Amino acid sequence: DPAHTDLAPDALALVRGLWDQWWNVRKTHQEPIRFNRRCRPLNSIYRKLALLSGFIRHFGENPLPGMIGIIEKESVEDAIRIFMEKLSPEDDFWTVHTSFTTPVRDCAAALIGRDRILELLADVLVPAMHAYASVTKNFKQIVKIESFFLTLPKTGSNLTIRRAVALCFPGRENVLKTVAAQQGVLHIYKMWCEKLSCDCRECPICKLV
Question: Distance between CA atoms of 202 and 193, rounded to whole angstroms?
Answer without folding.
Answer: 10
